[in-house]
Amino acid sequence: MERLKDGYYVRIIKEGGTPAIPQETSQGRGGEYWQITGSEAFNYATGDSTTAEFSAVSNGSESGWKNISNLEPFDIPRRLFHVVMGVKDGCKYYFRIPSGSSRFGVDQDKSVGFLDNTTSYYLAKNPMYDVWLCKNYFISINADNDTGISLTPKVWFEGYKYDIAPVTDENLIARIKSGDKPYTTVTIGGVRT
Fold it and tell me: Is the peptide bond before 166 cis (omega within 30 degrees of 0)?
């Protein structure tokens, strides 16, 4: 996973192309263009915080949808997360981003989709399943245990946290849109394009 450097510009959108983090600008509602003002690498595994996301799931059962609130970026200061995830056990992990919207449909299962230890192992996370997250767009997981034994589900995440600042100067926005200033487009809940 490539890290965006401080000073880079990003266009942050939702699926469909609308701004993911709306804000007021001098010309009305905007918020598509942002600048990276700081960054740091991070690792997080479910169950590593003071509140465990999952409890033990018996064979043939599901965990139910669990929001991974530690992966919801701050609103003040504005943050953007880029994460890839992996699992170790044999459960099937179904993901929603944001909570209530299914993801990972193309390569897995067209209706919901899942990751398991064959698609993204925790020590060799599959970069095909990286996602961008911002305020109100975080991960919810349902673990389906069909392993033959009782397990406590666990998902490992790694990636980068970015501090971001809105680009509000209309001249700079025009230069970005014209291609004079390079930028990266990120789709919240999806992969970088």
Answer: no
